[in-house]
Amino acid sequence: VRVKRRLGSKTMELDALLVCKGVALINETKSSLNNRDVDGLAAKLETFDDFFPEYAGKRCVGIIASLYIDESVVRYATSQKILCMGMKDDTMRVLNPEAAQP
Q1: CA separation (Å) from 35 to 64, 69, 76?
Q2: Residue pLDDT, tens place only, 74-99
Q3: Which terminus of the chain is more solvent-facing, meaning fewer CB atoms within 10 Å of its CB: N or C?
């Protein structure tokens, strides 16, 4: 839950970070999503190892979550290899599991 790191004059803040064997799951949650939010998470994934060197070498998986995610944003996130979590029926679900394929 809410992780913040400083590297020189730069800061990275994550809504949630879960580290498992071989994988670091990086979550950003927004009230509404657009492609810029996906780009922002993709940028964090690119510099993750700089801010969290203790997890270097682990596979980083980005997850962006919101109650409702427009299908166009899901498609864009999939093209960026970022998972989307949104409401489906009565529960939060991964809307694009194919994005997690290495």
Answers
A1: 11, 11, 7
A2: 999 999 999 999 988 889 999 999 99
A3: C
